[in-house]
Amino acid sequence: MICKVTNKKIKPFMSFGRMPIANGFLKKNQFKKEYFYNLEVGFSKEISLFQLNNHPKPKQMFNKNYPFFTGSSKGMISHFKSYANWVKRKYISNLNYLIEIGSNDGTFLKNFKNTNVKTLGFEPSKNVANISRKRGIKTINQFFNFKNVKKNKNLKNKIDIITAANAICHIPDLKSLIKGIDFLLTRKGIFIFEEPYLGSMYKKTSYDQIYDEHIYMFSVSSIDKIFKKFGFELIDALEQKTHGGSMRYVIARNNIHKVNSNVKKKLKYEIKNNIHNLKGCLKFKKNCEQSKKKLLLKLKNIKTKDQKIAGYAATSKSTTILNYCGIGPEIIDYICDTTPEKINKYSPGMHIPIVSMNHFKKNMPYAAFLFAWNHKKEILKKEKIFNKKGKWLTHINL
Ligand code: SAH
Ligand code: TMP
Fold it and tell me: Would the pTM count as exceeding 0.90?
């Protein structure tokens, strides 16, 4: 395989096997033409970048039927409120114009309404872009890349802050992304983004973070090295609790802003823990294989007692667990979810029925596999009856 940034050859170190589109929830009559690819991962030693080999084209995932809505989680709504408050506190004196990449349903940008900050979202998935427009948020329904960005000549070097969350790892062509950022940002401009953190994935063996939309699993080392190649520098890195452990990166043009001591500290931590090299990948691979064996044994033990298991939340992440471990409707009876777009469809690849939360309440299983483990606090708070009656399962130690 070829590294998507350096264009040099690298060897995939692990395969999760035949995989469908993670968010490709489908109806029975679509089973026959379901798309599959081989989910393989590789690591560029030169820039410490953990990446997918083959993956579906962005348009296959981000279109008018994108079924993920940031606002479906109360925890994320409150996270984005505090992310916006942090941006305001730190940068408001120099903040006139802010752009968000991957603005989804506008959950982050709506926090800038009733302020003097002008905002604009770039959001390729039409359904979610339309929701944010209805909320009065100016949104360009296009992919953020250099070709699309440069059409906006009036915005050249006019943007003080560009933000993103859980969107940059979805963009295969990072060179085009960074050229777009370079085009838009003022001299002192800042790019802030947060993404699931490779170090947290290693710690938890949460391999379900790996799926088609997550082309990259970033670390402080990789971000530092990538942006250096394009005249930018990493000036801060802050850990976040979201999505099972994320990192917020702050990027600026070279030698304009002070570099926070966090950066050095975190780079040192990554070197000490093999997050910057292939050794970490190979250990992770072993851990994944062990985790798969342990999980299958756990599920088999429940099934031999003829007890029912349900899945809780039809997350994109669950597609990797179910397909990698070969878990189908013979093991998990149904998966309940709050998203109307997923209900009455089937899970990608393994074809487990997706049902409403009402179904879960009326047909409580013996055990529920918490696929949305990153929203555990929020879910346990509202599932008081099941907490008493049933057993929660996860594939990782939380
Ligand atoms: N920021 C939100 C949404 C994350 S989901 C949150 O953290 O909850 C990822 C979003 O990025 C999707 O809405 C998807 O349509 C969008 N996206 C994917 N590729 C993109 C690109 N090249 N430019 C802008 N947005 C993109
Ligand atoms: P994601 O892990 O791909 O981001 O998707 C989260 C999914 O979890 C989404 O389909 C909504 C669902 N969900 C519930 O069903 N109940 C909940 O309480 C929460 C927080 C999420």
Answer: yes
